[in-house]
Amino acid sequence: MSHPVLRVQGLGHRFEGARDGAWAVREAGFELHPGEVLAIVGESGSGKSTLLNCIAGRLAPAEGQVLYRCRDDREIDVHRVGERERRELSRTEWGFVEQQAHEGLRMNVSAGANVGERLMGQGERRYAALRDTATRWLARVELDPARLDDSPREFSGGMRQRLQIARNLVTRPRLVLMDEPTSGLDVSVQARLLDLIRLLVGRLHLSAIVVTHDLGVARLLAHRTLVMRQGRIVEQGLTDRVFDDPQHPYTQLLVSSVVSA
Amino acid sequence: MNGYNFAYLDEGTKRMIRRALLKAVAVPGHQVPFGSREMPLAYGWGTGGIQVTAAVIGQADVLKVIDQGSDDTTNAVNIRRFFARTTGGRTTERTAEATIIQTRHRIPERPLTEAQILVYQVPQPEPLYKLEARRRETLKLHAFAEYGLMNVKLYEDIAQWGRIDTTYDYPVLVNGRYVMSPSPIPSFDNPKMHRMPALQLFGAGREKRLYAIPPWTDVKSLDFDDHPFRIEPQGHACALCGCTASYLDEILMEDGRTQWTCSDTDHCREQQENRA
């Protein structure tokens, strides 16, 4: 079996000023293998996003480690390396899809410039090549390539989310972190976006972590699911097993409280 | 002038500015913070440039001040008079005679020498400002030389206008390291900054930043391989001196017609004298 691409060990985070003993995340640990999609589910305030931000290097955890195995097979401690290296990782080997597309996009430049930014950051200085790549990526995320020079402000929520995905995947990252990528979209748009994400993740052999409060999203995308409650991981396992045969009382409650149409 | 120190600023302030300038020269193109003082002039009128000039000017210096290439606009006249009164030193309108030239929006046409200092008035020192408004973030982008964002702006120009549409304050890479705003000079002047024999100092009063290009430093205008930086020819000759190689201003005449003349008035005078 291949080495895990990501190992999270004993991760804990407490926000400054939180009352004694209140941890946003406590003793979180898991591994992520190449090509694997992991869902983190739980109610609001359960620490999902905090955990994701710690993994992404955006928050410095109070304890524990995040170990990432790079393309060149070096394993690095994300919070031990310097900020320069961490930033480089996050714009080359990683992608981050924000819940609010406008936070992950540059809203005052065109769709093409949004897709090209990471490439330019890696030193691409040929305008024609940038446009070619951006055009191809728009098509891949099922956006009309004719809208290359349009502003994302003119895009609908679903289109913006697609653009954000293209912008992240253009440099072929190995690990993509997604924070509620489909919430805030209407149901039919959600379904198409989920299909697209599933397709791209499979085709590009990405490893991904998807934070979601929607069990349907986890069921559809994730190989494995991790259930969080009050900052702790209460259950983790294969997605089908977790949802069909939940062990922890909280997971049982979560699964049984899904409203089915 | 009684009660005022030489060149208006007190010696402690001048020393502080000189220290910042030394640092700026040592790290070409890097913005150095400094304690900008209240000057007897509104922000936006050259308070940064004046403070730099005040810190470097000496008894033997000859000062020239230009605004848009001209020695006789309000801003230029007032700053020149300010230093004439506070230093008692000589001023000039001739580029060749000056040892310090304070400028707004132009570089003189006549090539400068190692014996001269060019002081720029800078409204916005941060070249990334329009794309990334958070100062904390731009500091990091500079520190880690993450300049992909700068090309996003140029990309956007070409996508929208078919060419790089930035015609002034065109960003440059200094000494292969820092991306720098050249202040709102026309891109026509950018090539003059490259390996210039004179010391170039930049002062932004409101933004409290100084930066510098030491003599003979590489200054490259940013571009794409397949859309290289170039100067758009203006397609006119100066109506007064006939020069076709200088930067021209379009002047509206009383009868409603327009006339193109050299923006650098001293250069225009020299050309006319040479012709006569």
Please provide a written account of the structure.
The complex is a heterodimer of chains A (261) and B (276). Chain A has 261 residues and is of the alpha/beta class. Chain A has helices at 48-55, 83-92, 101-104, 111-121, 127-140, 157-169, 187-203, 215-221, 239-244, 249-256, and strands at 6-13, 25-32, 37-41, 63-69, 75-77, 94-97, 175-179, 207-212, 224-229, 232-238. Chain A is 38% helix and 23% strand. A six-stranded mixed beta sheet of chain A has the order 6-7-8-3-9-10, sandwiched between helices. In chain A, helix 4 (111-121) crosses helix 5 (127-140) and helix 6 (157-169) runs parallel beside helix 7. The longest helix of chain A has 17 residues, at 187-203. With 276 residues, chain B is α/β, with parallel strands linked by helices. Chain B is built from seven helices and twelve strands. In chain B, the strands form three sheets. Chain B has a seven-stranded mixed beta sheet with strand order 1-9-8-5-4-2-3. In chain B, a hairpin with a 4-residue loop joins strand 8 and strand 9 (209-213). The radius of gyration of chain B is 19 Å and the shape is globular. Chains A and B meet through helix 2, helix 4 and helix 5 of A and helix 5 of B.
Describe this protein with a few key phrases.
heterodimer; A: alpha/beta; 6-stranded mixed beta sheet; 4-stranded antiparallel beta sheet; B: 276 residues; alpha/beta; 7-stranded mixed beta sheet; 18% strand
Report mean pLDDT of chain A, rounded to a whole number.
92
Query: Assembly type of the shown chains?
Result: heterodimer
Q: Residue share in helices of chain B?
A: 25-40%
Which segments of chain B are poorly predicted (pLDDT under 50) over 5 or more consecutive residues? none
What is the secondary structure topology, with strand pairs?
The complex is a heterodimer of chains A (261) and B (276).
Chain A: E1 6-13, E2 25-32, E3 37-41, H1 48-55, E4 63-69, E5 75-77, H2 83-92, E6 94-97, H3 101-104, H4 111-121, H5 127-140, H6 157-169, E7 175-179, H7 187-203, E8 207-212, H8 215-221, E9 224-229, E10 232-238, H9 239-244, H10 249-256
Parallel strand pairs in A: 3-8, 3-9, 6-7, 7-8
Antiparallel strand pairs in A: 1-2, 1-4, 4-5, 9-10
Helix pairs in contact in A: 4-5, 4-6, 5-6, 6-7
Chain B: H1 11-26, E1 32-33, H2 47-56, E2 62-67, H3 74-87, E3 90-91, E4 100-104, E5 117-121, H4 135-143, H5 148-161, E6 172-174, E7 178-180, H6 190-193, E8 199-204, E9 209-213, E10 219-221, E11 248-252, E12 258-262, H7 265-275
Parallel strand pairs in B: 2-3, 2-4, 4-5, 5-8
Antiparallel strand pairs in B: 1-9, 6-7, 6-10, 8-9, 11-12
